[in-house]
Description:
Strand 1 and strand 2 (about 90) form a beta hairpin. The longest helix is centred in the N-terminal third of the chain and has 21 residues, at about 5-25. The chain is rod-shaped and about 115 Å long. The chain is about 50% helix and about 5% strand. The protein is mainly alpha-helical. Strands 1-2 form a two-stranded antiparallel ribbon. It has 2 domains: about 5-45; about 80-120, no CATH class.
Amino acid sequence: MPSKxxxxxxxxxxxxxLIYTLAMSGEQKSYVILLSIFIVxxxxxxxxxxxxQPSTQAFRTVAPEPPPPAAxxxxxxxxxxxxxxxxxxxxxLEARRCRFCGEIFDxxxxxxxxxxxxxxxS
Length: 122
């Protein structure tokens, strides 16, 4: 609730209470002091401007995107490709199994193909 609204409520309660207190008979001193404080605090809350607080929406920013994983940042070096003997798809020279058809290559044949491929690259 804004401070001006609270100030107005306090002031109204203070004035109404003061009128009621002055109308009744008997000990009134403590009530008059208390209700006078209500009126003064209400006036202060109405008159004194509230300190400006910047809107949180004005400074709301979009969270930055997380950095891409290291695997995406590092570009793979030029890899030598070979044809799979079963499905004829291009696969990496060092592959032990074809990622397309699942053909598993003989380790001895694989070693010789790697040596031949690297010799051709140099």
